[in-house]
Request: fold
Amino acid sequence: MKLSEMRLNKHLTQRKSANFLNVSQQNVSQWENGLRKPDYKLLKPMSELYNCTIEDLINAINETSMLGVEPERGSPGKPSSA
Reply:
């Protein structure tokens, strides 16, 4: 199960989740899109919010992060050989 599914199962918006966790809505969006992972200090409050175990939450975070951004081609500052 992905992070967004956990949130939606509790009928929460990203904003409501963010308010409960004392983070920005943008943070929640980045977590759900696999762009960043939440700080480990948020695992307990997130597990309480989503009514799941910390293990389930970590699995959801890992599953979500696998869906994130694909690696960039070439190195920063160097043109790619095309």
User: Anything to note?
Assistant: The chain has a mean pLDDT of 86.
